[in-house]
Design goal:
Blueprint: H1 3-17, H2 29-42, H3 66-71, H4 74-83, H5 97-112
Helix pairs in contact: 1-2, 2-5, 4-5
The structure holds heme C.
Heme C binds near residues 37, 40, 80 and 107.
Length: about 120
């Protein structure tokens, strides 16, 4: 195994182990899902700069980039979440359609926040 791969595994398992439990009523389900499943690669505010991102090729897109947001339909985002986009794994098995939809909305929200 190459070192970056080992590190990304280590970082991933660390993130899973340290997963924050959402405070009731404070965080939306989508945010909690994002923190649990996506943040390791996509970063806390979707900048594409999570701890695992450095080891990935290509790097995760930045959800805060207006060009990224403009270039994708909700449908395309949902398809990527369900089916994956290497090196991103597919999440279609573990997420319901409603959860995927909520994550798409959350990604849009990340894109609309000023940095
Ligand atoms: C193992 C790291 C990793 C994880 C975990 C991950 N992603 Fe990604 N994601 C990526 C990478 C890398 C790309 C860019 C792939 C490319 O451009 O080919 C990407 C791309 C995307 C895209 C853009 C697809 C497009 O149209 O270009 C969306 C949307 C996305 N991820 C959502 C999510 C969501 C939501 C989660 C959590 C449920 C998640 N990702 C978890 C690595 C990850």
């Amino acid at each position: 195994m190459t070192r970056p791969f080992v590190w990304s595994l280590a970082a991933l398992s660390l993130c899973v182990a340290l997963r924050p439990s959402p405070a009731p009523g404070q965080q939306s389900d989508a945010k909690a899902l994002y923190q649990r499943l996506c943040v390791a690669c996509h970063g806390p505010i979707g900048g594409g700069d999570g701890p695992v991102a450095a080891a990935l090729k290509p790097k995760p897109a930045s959800f805060t980039d207006p060009q990224f947001q403009a270039a994708r339909t909700d449908e395309q985002l949902a398809t990527a979440i369900k089916g994956g986009k290497p090196p991103m794994p597919p999440f279609g098995q573990q997420l319901s359609a409603a959860e995927v939809k909520a994550l798409v909305a959350y990604i849009r929200q990340l894109g609309s926040k000023p940095r």
